[in-house]
Write a structure and sequence with these properties.
The chain has eight helices and twelve strands. Helix 1 crosses helix 8 and helix 6 packs across helix 7. With 246 residues, it is an alpha/beta fold. Helix 1 links the parallel strand 1 and strand 2. The strands form two sheets. Strands 3-2-1-4-5-12 form a six-stranded parallel beta sheet, sandwiched between helices. Bound molecules: NADP nicotinamide-adenine-dinucleotide phosphate.
Amino acid sequence: MNAVLILGGTAEARALAAELHGARIPVTSSLAGRVRDPALPVGDVRIGGFGGPAGLADYLRAHRIRAVVDATHPFATGMSASAAAACTAAEVPLLRLARPGWADHPLAGGWQWVDGPAEAVRAAAGRRVLLTTGRRTLDEFAVLDAPFVLVRLVDPVSADLPAEWSVLTSRGPYTVPGELALLREHRIELLVTKDSGGQMTEPKLLAAQQLGVRVVVLRRPAAETGVPAVSTVSETVGWVRSTVEG
Ligand code: NAP
């Protein structure tokens, strides 16, 4: 039986690798190589881009991959598009594993949902802001006209940020007491986040609610059409089993 390829970089991808490894299903996890000191899944790991859909299709054929699970972050749209195209070309079954978003969170009705950074910039103007939307959209937030901006990132950025911004490098999971302390210390009035979903970064939302801090949430990009999707690791294990063992 040949390997399963997990496109990773998320906690769900690591949990899936551990489950499949435990079930003795040969699996390779793929990471982009963006983070300096990534949390590594168990088992075989490869790091770095494939060179677009054609490069990934070549990889699938060369390694005789039997099934691909796209367990990348919901905002990693480039990799998901590439996976859909490559799996179609190489005729390899593809499943999307994406954790549920926060649209159904009990507090979601009190947040301002926006379609992208430009709308978030308008919503956050004039406030003391905590920005937790990640490295990729920083350029689009550079025009933010706010008296104070604290940006929280996993790694320091090499790109130029506005000189007056403060940068905090840290990695989840976070706690509600820790997030309360951070929001209080910097007298944050508004939190900007993306709809990552999951529990690792949820405490900031609970802390914001407790302190009356406004929350602006970037909606998720649309999922790839035509790719079957599940939201749990256990459903994914079932799909992998039926695909490679069936
Ligand atoms: P992206 O914009 O969707 O991907 C851009 C390119 O990076 C892809 O076309 C691919 O290069 C390479 N790449 C991305 N994920 C890869 C993977 N798992 N294995 C091998 N190559 C990968 O990706 P991104 O948003 O920068 O995210 C990069 C990684 O960080 C992903 O693994 C994702 O799960 C993780 N992550 C992202 C976010 C986020 O907010 N975007 C948050 C947490 C974790 P080629 O075209 O050369 O194959």
